[in-house]
Amino acid sequence: MTKHQKSRSFTATTRSNFSRRQFMMATGMAAGAAVLAPAWNATATPRRTLDTGDRVPALIIGSGYGGAVTALRLTQAGIDTHIVEMGKAWDTPGADGKIFSPLLEPDKRSYWLRTRTAQPVSHFSGGSVDKNIEKYVGVLDAENMGGITVYQGRGVGGGSLVNGGMAVVPKRSYFEEVLPSVDSDAMYNTFFPTANATLGVNNIDESWFESTEYYKFARTGRKTAERSGFQTTFVPNVYDFDYMKLEAAGSATKSALVGEVIYGNNAGKRSLDKTYLAQAAATGKLTVTTLHQVTAVSPAASGGGYTVEMDHIDEQGNVVATKTVTADKVFFAAGSVGTSKLLVAMKAQGHLPNLSGEVGQGWGNNGNIMVGRANHMWDATGAKQSAMPTMGIDNWDDPEGPVFAEIAPFPAGTELWISLYLAITKNPERAQFLFNSGTGQTELSWQTSQNQPGIDMAKRVFDKINKKEGTIYRTDLFGVYKTWGDGLTYHPLGGAILNKATDNHGRLHGYPGLYVMDGALVPGNLGVNPFVTITALAERNMADVIANDIH
Ligand code: FAE
User: Whole-structure pTM over 0.90, yes or no?
Assistant: First the structure.
């Protein structure tokens, strides 16, 4: 390990043997698959898009991290498993030959059912950078939850399609503080390593990092942090760093190196459709029903199990059909917001009245705060930047400013001298989901003022860097004269907290056969980027469910 590489960095080199194409073939989603004879049995387990009247053993709502782990472990246990995903399968290139939209010229593929983009860095030099787009079932949802915009991935693979790929195992002491009911030996000895291996986590070649123009921004961010006495650390990622080197050498089509990330990567990224979901599909026991949004879950009138209602939508978001199927077991994996909204509505509307009062509680934004600094002219950040972050500032153990800040790329295609950061702070504020019977919608109580503790923590770190460097904040990135990007989160967590709203393994109280398996289980703040923890926790919970509930 180098002086920059602290204990949190580690190597996990397992690669998926499955390509996106193999995954599509296995799930019957490839072009032309419809004409192949589908191997389905109409009486019990249709191997096709679900239809009204179907009865299935296991239905998973959502195909992000929690859903993908659930699908792999159920299918490996021999269970016919059905994922219902509201987004589309990102498997077909558009007219430009690409599956996903470019970063700098976002088109309809970029955003979920919006007519105008909602870029996280929303302004530049006094004006909005957003533009009008066609309404479409795009890959990134900027969901307005009142006091906060929650960014989420939509499509087969959920957040893995749009995220920065940073694969961070939390500090053990903080993990134990956040989830005290979980056996941390089992997590750190078994489930985190399993998650990393199956996700295909890898580490950047440090000598390449030190020399490539694409990580100048990270080296500048590191240098300025360390000059102020802050520790930095390399962060593993699920983007294939060998592929990235080929991009840099000009021998592979560029993806991360042309800024692709939040609107999807056309290459290089080990998203869930290439890892967990591909492995699940290869068992022959997985079906994925896309463009279907689950709207209700309730005990079935007869025969046990649960009735699951869903809207089938078209690519403009119009409901073209409603369907009702029955499932013996239902796994909520719609993400912290999706799962919490559904559960709170089901309790309030009397579909699942016996759910715990803990349902909807304990939501947090993982303390997310974004900020930019203007460097001096001699501290360039590079016109060429990799869109995959690979370095963080680790000030977590400072009680005055507990912050783990990703040194984020700003791949604008031109030198800007801007250091951008996504800070994860130890903001203790929490919110709850509440059902509004007037609108029929579930709302989140988070207020903008609840960001202040996080801003104060981040300010302590970045004020110190600015003072030492003689630099200032950029006040033009998140509004006009607005320093802090505090109106958004990439890391929604909580709403169905483990061992409170559920038992200690995700079983919902009062309803045998209903489970939560996603970020809703995690109490509001993790101190690091969350997907490795969500994956490992789902691995742990599913090991218990397979051992005890599946016969
Ligand atoms: P998630 O991945 O959101 O999956 C939920 C799925 O359920 C989605 O596919 C939804 O479309 C689907 N769904 C929702 N409601 C319904 C419904 N009613 N019916 C059917 N389907 C439904 O949940 N985390 C990191 O660890 N490292 C990073 O570098 C990182 N960068 C990020 C960058 C961005 C721009 C964003 C948005 C997130 C980032 N995250 C990162 C967060 C990470 O992606 C997120 O924590 C996980 O994706 C959450 O996993 P879940 O399984 O909880």
Answer: yes
Q: If residue 492 lies in a helix (H) or strand (E), which one and from where to where?
A: none
Specify if 417 maps to a domain: yes
* pLDDT over 80 at 28, yes or no: no
Rounded CA-CA distance 22/167 in Å is: 25
Q: Are the CB atoms for 451 and 484 separated by under 8 Å?
A: yes
Separation CA 201–CA 144 (nearest Å): 31
Q: What is the pLDDT of residue 46?
A: 60
In the predicted model, what is the mean pLDDT of residues 32-45? 33
Number of domains in the chain: 1
Ligand 1, CB within 6 Å, residue ranges? 61-66, 84-87, 151-154, 158-159, 162-166, 262, 293-294, 333-336, 338, 342, 490-491, 518-519, 529-531, 534
Please indicate, yes or no, if residue 7 is contained in any of the structural domains. Answer: no
Is the Cβ–Cβ distance between 342 and 515 less than 8 Å?
no
User: CA-to-CA distance for 412 and 320, rounded, in angstroms?
Assistant: 39
174 CA → ligand 1 middle, Å: 22
Which of 49, 59, 65 is the pocket-test mutation for ligand 1 (most atoms within 8 Å of CB)? 65
Written as one string, the DSSP assignment of 39-80 is --BTTTB-SSS--TT-EEEEEEE--SHHHHHHHHHHHHTT--
Q: How far is the CA of 152 from the centre of ligand 1 (A)?
A: 5
Q: Ligand 1 centroid vs 491 CA: distance in angstroms?
A: 8
Q: In this structure, are residues 433 and 345 in contact, taking their beta carbons and an 8 Å threshold?
A: no
CATH number of the structural domain spanning residue 82: 3.50.50.60
What does the pLDDT average to over 520-539?
98
All residues at 6 or more sequence positions from 398 whose CB lies less than 8 Å from its CB, including other chains: 460
- Say how far apart CA 379 and CA 220 lie, in whole Å: 6
- Between CA 26 and CA 282 the distance in angstroms is 6
Structural domain includes residue 8: no
Report pLDDT digits (tens) over 63-122. Answer: 999 999 999 999 999 999 999 999 999 999 999 999 999 999 999 999 999 999 999 999
Upper half-sphere CA count for residue 103 (Cβ side, 13 Å): 24
Find out whether 161 and 110 touch, Cβ atoms under 8 Å. no
State which of 490, 493, 528, 537 you would mutate to test the pocket of ligand 1, scoring each by most atoms of that ligand within 8 A of its C-beta.
490
Phi, psi of 276 (to 5 degrees): -55, -50
Residue 1 lies in a domain: no
pLDDT in tens, 470-521: 999 999 999 999 999 999 999 999 999 999 999 999 999 999 999 999 999 9
Separation CA 266–CA 242 (nearest Å):
16
Which domain covers residue 258, as residue numbers? 20-549
CA–centroid distance, 401 to ligand 1, in Å, is 27
The residue contributing the CA closest to ligand 1 atom 27 is 166
State pLDDT tens for residues 284-333. 999 999 999 999 999 999 989 999 999 999 999 999 999 999 999 999 99
Catalytic residues: 406, 491
